[in-house]
Amino acid sequence: MVADNEFTRVGFPEPATQEGPGIIELWQGFWIVAIAVGLLVIGLLVFASIKFRRKSEDEVPPQVRYNIPLEILYTVVPLIIVLALFGFTAKEQNKLTALTDEYTHVVNVVGFRWSWSFNYIDSNVYETGTPGVVPTLYLPVDEKVRFELTSPDVLHSFWIPSFLFKMDIVPGAINRFELTPDKVGTYVGKCAELCGQDHARMLFNVKVVERPEYDQYIASLRAKGQTGMIPPGILPRGETITNAGAN
């Protein structure tokens, strides 16, 4: 199904990554199944209430008990539906979280109470924010980016609604995923995990730009002396942030 308007996108924003349409299609399938099951249940309720209604004060409607084939049917069919939905979900999730060697850039996202830092690993520069200053993450359009999520304090969750993707940030671990932004524009990002007093202020912006503008931004960070890395958080023994993204 083509996700070309808000109705066919089942309320989701227009996807801004190459991976987004697959997520839309998954939810479209869920809604089709949910509507079909809902209509079936409503239809059966209406049918039963009319077919087996009491027609007089003295008449008792036919009672049906212990219908084994019917009980098997309404046990097995929902189970098949749930397993099918689980299978499609697992397939799409595995595709979204698969790591490749095809990425062009690596961004270490550090979520901390209560803002964000972005370490552009392959360029050796960084940007950071505060609860009062919303940072901006720059990404080049049509280039695959690997995100490496870390935290020095508590659980956070990295969420860009227009990317249709969210991943938790767990202290002591590195969570990784890859996306390819394919629409130039400015998008809103936020923390989606209740993390403390100023959780609501954990906001950031995302600017997807053409490569020349991206290179210019990286150069501006270097000119301001923002080289090296903001500490990436507490990492487990043996785990390190990817050294370079150019492959």
Task: Describe the overall structure.
This protein is α+β, with helices and mostly antiparallel strands. The chain has 2 domains: 20-97, Helix Hairpins (Orthogonal Bundle); 105-223, Sandwich (Immunoglobulin-like). It is built from 3 helices and 10 strands. It has helices at 20-51, 68-97, 211-223, and strands spanning 105-112, 115-120, 125-128, 136-140, 145-150, 156-160, 165-169, 175-179, 185-191, 203-209. The protein is elongated and about 90 Å long.
In short:
With 247 residues, the chain is of the alpha+beta class.
Protein traits:
5-stranded mixed sheet; Immunoglobulin-like; alpha+beta; 30% helix; Helix Hairpins; 2 domains; 10 strands; single chain; elongated
How much strand? 15-25%
How many beta strands in the DSSP annotation? Answer: 10
The main β sheet shows up as:
5 strands, mixed
Give helix and strand order, one letter per element, not per position: HHEEEEEEEEEEH
CATH topology of the largest domain: Immunoglobulin-like
Number of domains: 2
